[in-house]
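Run log, item B.
One chain of 641 residues. Sequence copied directly from the ordering sheet:
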Amino acid sequence: MSMDENISRLVDMGIEMEIARKALEETGNQLDAAINSIYSKYDPDPPNYNEAVQKSDNDKHAFQNNHDMQDTQLGSRMSAPIEIDDELKSTLSQYKSYKQVPIRLDNSDDNHQDSMNYVNSDSSGDSTGGNAMDWSSENLEDVSAGEYNMLDDVQREKRLSNTSGVLVPIGSDTFEGYMAPILMIFAQIPSFRDIILKHEFFDYGFSQDWWKGQPCLQDSLALQEIQRLVAFLSYNSERAYATTKLLSDSISETLTEEYESAFEFVSLMYKQLTDILSTTNCDFKKPLSQLLDTIIRSSTSEHQETHQCFTIEPNYFHSTVYGIMHRLFWGRDFSNIGINQMVRPSDVLTFIFDADGQNISAGYQLSQKFYPQIYAEPHENLIKKRVDQLKALRKKSAEITSEMLRLRSFKGKKVSSMLGSTINYLSGESKLLENAENKEDNDACEEDNSKDTNEVPKLSYSQAINELTSIREHINKTIKEDTMKLEEISKEQQIDIFDVEMILGAETENLEPWILVGIVLNDQQFCMLSKNDYNIWRCFFFDGASNYECEEMPFQELQSQVRVYSKTTFERGMTLIYVRKSVFEAKTEPVKNSNLEKFIEKDNEHLEAKLKEYLKEHGKTEHKQEMNYSDKGAGDGDDIQ
């Protein structure tokens, strides 16, 4: 209802207009909360259900909670469903379109501490716990002073045991900054890796400094450079890192527009991969579509739509992935359940937060699993059932609250107080009459007249007192019963529409989840899941090609830091990559590509010879392990050094 309608409803119940208006304004036009607010201020004995209802509204992500009301006050729509038309293309990222409002990324190198800072505690002291993901001042001074350049460190070229290769963006170009982490994340997906390596070119050329960006071929194709990097990550390379310069150079000729937002970078990368591979071999089209293309159907569109990314704009922000997707698919009021459906989720689901300078007020809570099946039949009916249940509970709550209001007040006055005052008055009048009867100085006639005239009022007073007392007791009993009913309703209303795993219940045993495998914060920082231990994440920090660091971090700590980051310094947003569990865990060896394997073997030989020559000239020294992967135990609570 509108505020004017709710004001009229409260006025009809005997509440003054200004009091009603003020209460509704303070509670965001929530009728139940406004009634509770009125009695908490003007009634010394408000109903007990007030705290429970208010806590449910504030703390639980229930249907149309207070956070939604805050978004509405900022100008967002109460209902923002996916429409499979031009509006959808500005809501869900379609890989053929790049016309979104950009995120302005700061590429300045003037302040390394600002550019490399990942997550810190906010000013209120909300501690992230464990490793604070930023650079130490000592390393910042070395980097800014130009005292260390990784490309000149021969010993660092050698990969340490039990570590994987790293792709380093060599330039300041933000597209390259996103390309490196996404390729590293995707290289962990066996089906993607094999699609890339399957096509074998006759010649890949060779250069000893290919990893720095020295060309191996005079006119190499973009696919060849993608293959070279994926082979470096997948085959038995002994090299610690390689830059993405050759790939960036091969793709740069096709970039005819300027791209500024994370959505544009990631969408462009997916489109480039799709176009390059499909053009090379038409057999790649179907597995690529399965990997990247999510198909969505809507009753408002005649055709199904294909999307490779979901872009999340500020008016859809929520603290959970389901809260966001519920709003995208069904609107804030859930009125569009069944209208928009996910016909086929792709094996890789990518969510891009287009923060546009705005934070998530409650912080974002990372989820390790995601069940996109909830956005298709028959599982979406589970959400619909709970939405209908919440609506019915709210309607019932409003009816009971209205009844309580009518029982408690009349023309703006408390009924219990009015009854009490009336009973007291009648009791006093009854005593006066009784005293008058006992006067002995009245003559017999007057006594007879007195009995004749006063017996009826006496009986009337007594009856009135008894009846009013009975009414008051009935009202108090009814209010007490209604209060208990509201407390029960309040408990039932604590249904979390966004707790999909709870809603699915045992059904999750029959459904395959998508697991979170990668988080790209910006063009300098990203995290990827360890395939050996799903509780461990590797977090990377880049300063161009001059240096990079990696720190292992348990998921719980990463979750805490992302929550703080998203509610304090979320201007650049982030990109989340989920992969179908069976696809990510497929136990297959990399597909054979003989020429690429020979390339890696040759590179290993040159690297070994280079290291021997270096040790011969400089003497035998230990590798600088502290400049490569950290040997510290995950979660030891130390800052990255």
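Observations after the first pass:
- The first helix runs from residue 3 to 12.
- The CA atoms of residues 28 and 70 lie 8 Å apart.
Flagged for discussion on Thursday.
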